[in-house]
Amino acid sequence: MDAILLQTLNGLDKGSAYALIALGLTLIFGTLGVVNFAHGALFMMGAFCAVTFNKLLTLSTITLDPEKKDFLGNPLQVRTPYIEDWLGPELGAAIIDWSVPLAILFAIPVMIIIGLVMERGLIKYFYKRPHADQILVTFGLAIVLQEIIKFYYGANPIPTPAPSAFAGSFDFGALIGMDPGTIIYPYWRLVYFAFALLVIVAVFVFLRFTTFGMVVRAGMADRETVGLLGINIDKRFTIMFAIAACVAGLAGVMYAPINSPNYHMGMDFLVLSFVVVVVGGMGSLAGAVLAGFLLGILESFASMTQVLDVLPGINQIIIYLVAIVVLLTRPRGLMGRKGVMED
Amino acid sequence: MSGFKMNRRGLLKSGAVMGAGLAMPTVFAGRLAADGHAFTNAPTGGTVTLGFNVPQSGPYADEGADELRAYQLAVEHLNGEGDGGMMSTFSSKALNGTGIMGKKVEFVTGDTQTKSDAARASAKSMIEKDGAVMITGGSSSGVAVAVQALCQEAGVIFMAGLTHSNDTTGKDRKANGFRHFFNSYMSGAALAPVLKNAYGTDRNAYHLTADYNWGYTTEQAVKESTEAMGWNTVNTVLTPLAATDFSAYITPVLQSDADVLVLNHYGGNMVNSLTNAVQFGLRDRIVNGKNFEIIVPLYSRLMAKGAGANVKGIFGSTNWHWSLQDEGSQAFVKSFGTKYGFPPSQAAHTCYVQAMLYADAVERAGSFNPCAVVEALEGFEFDGMGNGPTLYRAEDHQCFKDVLVVRGKENPTSEFDLLEIVEVTPVDQVTYAPDHPQFAGGSLGTCNPGA
Q1: Which of A331, B16, B329, B339 could form an SS bridge with B324, CB 3.0 to 4.6 Å?
Q2: What are phi and psi of B178, to 5 degrees?
Q3: What percent of chain A has pLDDT over 70?
Q4: Which residues of chain B make contact with A157, given a CB cutoff of 8 A?
Q5: What would the pLDDT profile of B58-70 be if each residue is shown by its tens digit?
Q6: In chain B, what residues touch A303 (CB-CB under 8 Å)?
Q7: Among all residues of chain A, which has the CA nearest to that of B343?
Q8: How confident is the model at residue B15 (pLDDT cuts 50, 70, 90)?
Q9: What tens digit of pLDDT does each residue of A110-164 get?
Q10: Are β-strands B47-54 and B38-40 bridged in parallel, bridged antiparallel, or unpaired?
Q11: φ, ψ for residue A71 (rounded to 5)?
Q12: B373-402 pLDDT, tens per residue?
């Protein structure tokens, strides 16, 4: 029982990342009709926004400590972040400690700009091209983005810790009346899950309850008619691309403490996220979120020792097996709409 | 209906082509060297070309870049430039800074991408197109085994870079291949006594193992060495090489009776699994009345950096570390650090030493002929290269030397100061018989000069 509960929790945080990436993918596909293989790279760029923000906060003055020696026997360089000089050691250290959540403020404008540049500079030229062309060009773009990151940050993962207040784990088992120590869960993963829910709800509220969102949804249903009503739907779709990039970026920012960011992390999520979109139903936002959590949880269950003892290797194929079963029984996915990608 | 007809002229042409083909033993053409023996890519002019096959892209690109820096430094030193590095501390005095046998050393590079097929292709290109007489480098056992086999076929020497699997000098050993780096067995043998002192003999270990060759041999080595001192192995679980989030593998550890987690992971796998294990509070747990402990059998400073503060207090083993105080290590660190501004990694060290050992063997053999080089390296004893007295054992072409047991440093003074040496395990303690079961099933065969 406790193992099942624990794997469900594991699946929720993994599913949160899948859901957020798949949500952005679906937004772009639903509005612009573009299959964006660079979406994983946007997730990675978000994580590197956290890395960059941390580096900016830790820009330092260098003084030499003659008492200590470096590896060559020269006086050791001691670095003191400017922010600690300016705001005092305690406040400066606290801000650096909270660099990941604070990086959200940095990532939002950065990711919106990246999204706008991507859409206006490249993607818009491929709206009327076949999906195969879109996949090729966005996949190429993803490789370019990850090589740029590798050039500046190297190939090794870069540790980007959560604030020390969330560094540990808590005894979830004791909280629900089970034996202490049976279900331990990291604080930051719960924060990530809550953050994912918040972003998902915010996107749905935005689309459902704002005029802008209403126009976008109308455009997703019938782009031509909305255009005939004198509404510049292209402009709104461009903004939606930037919002989707921002959602992926924020997912990446908050994911940075879970696994140290590296240039390849977007590719690790990309294929799985596309499976999530297909299982959820192409163009269905609710389907993407549902399938994200569902597949995250299933993947966690498939990694249980008890399951692996019976079905060795199932953890590596479970998502694809589920995708096959869903597509055989519900060809449009769990919540797919008729007519999407069927022409 | 047209049928196949062979006339006399056609038969002669076909016979000539076939004869020429048969006369060429492989795709690698041999050349007659000054010593009168033909071998692949015998240097004929005033230069000799070495092939540095390192990961320049992919997940181990940073390690590959450090290897390449070390090779460039070695080439400088061989050609008499720079401060000479470890040439001055090397016990053999055959090298004199005039290249190798008077020929200026040049080099070409290949990108292994840490993929066996890509590594073979780049090595093949360096041998066939660039005339490399020796191939060296790499940051993975899969790559090392694949390139070693290619070099054996091609008739060139392979001086392995960072490869830790037992199989490189075990079941996949080849006469033309040599490994300076230590191996999984040595990690297990070096770690066991330290772990016994630190954590006692009554422990339950849970292994998470990367699902590929290196993972298997490391798990076996650590499992056997810890069980031999009384530890019990609770479970061994294979994790996909492509895994990034290990939470689903960590949580069953919480529900087992284990009080030690052994992470048979390297690179990104190690960084992520260790980070996840610490996040799940394993290091704060008390199980069976003991503190829960984590072990990383193979440490790399470059990888430890990726795991940040999570490495603090965690034991592992390493081939070499820049903080060693022997004359050879200090000379290398000074030379490398002055040129590049940071200390070398263990990958850089082993690659530098391999390039030097090859050059020295050629000088001592008086020939670039791979068979002469093999003879010069087999049973070669040397010192002054940073690991104390070392033997290149003839039976399996594995170097035997002291092994370092290290621990993540609690209070690092710089970004390079991540590991502290807790014990220099003497070579006798990590030496095994050539027919040890963990290395069974292989045979060196005979050296291949390629022509």
Answers
A1: B329
A2: -140, 140
A3: 98
A4: 268, 271-272, 306-307
A5: 878 889 999 999 9
A6: 248-249
A7: A71
A8: very low
A9: 999 999 999 999 988 988 888 889 999 999 999 999 999 999 998 889 999 999 9
A10: unpaired
A11: -65, -15
A12: 999 999 999 999 999 999 999 999 999 999
Contact (Cβ atoms closer than 8 angstroms) between residue B107 and residue B28: no
Give the whole-number percent of chain B exceeding pLDDT 70. 92
Residue A241 Cα, gap to closest chain B Cα (Å):
27
* Tokens matching residue B167: 């199989």
What count of CB pairs under 8 Å joins A to B? 124
Residue B33: pLDDT band (50, 70, 90) is low
> A5 touching B, CB under 8 A?
no
- Chain-chain contact of B252 with A304 (C-beta, under 8 angstroms): yes
What pLDDT does A33 receive? 81
> What is the set of domains in chain B, with CATH numbers?
47-182+322-397 (3.40.50.2300), 185-318 (3.40.50.2300)
Among the partner residues A6, A265, A316, nearest to B251 by beta-carbon distance? A6
Measured N-to-C along each axis, helices A285-302 and B247-254 cross at an angle, to the nearest 10 degrees, of: 50
B354 to each of B39, B329, B349, B360, B392, how far by Cα in Å? 21, 14, 9, 10, 11
Interface test with B, best of A51, A60, A71, A314 (most B CBs within 10 A): A71
Please indicate if any CB of chain B lies within 8 Å of the CB of A273: no
- Tell me the range of A206-220, B4-18, B222-236 where mean pLDDT is highest: B222-236
Q: What is the mean pLDDT of residues B288-297?
A: 94
Question: What is the rounded CA–CA span in Å between residue B136 and residue B204?
Answer: 40
Are A308 and B237 in contact (CB < 8 Å)?
yes
Residues A133, A141: Cα–Cα separation, whole Å: 12
**Could B334 and A188 be called an inter-chain contact, meaning their C-beta atoms sit closer than 8 Å?**
no
Q: Which CATH architecture has domain A2-329?
A: Orthogonal Bundle (1.10)
Quote the minimal CA–CA distance from A26 to chain B in Å: 24
Contacts A181 to B, Cβ<8 Å: 254, 285
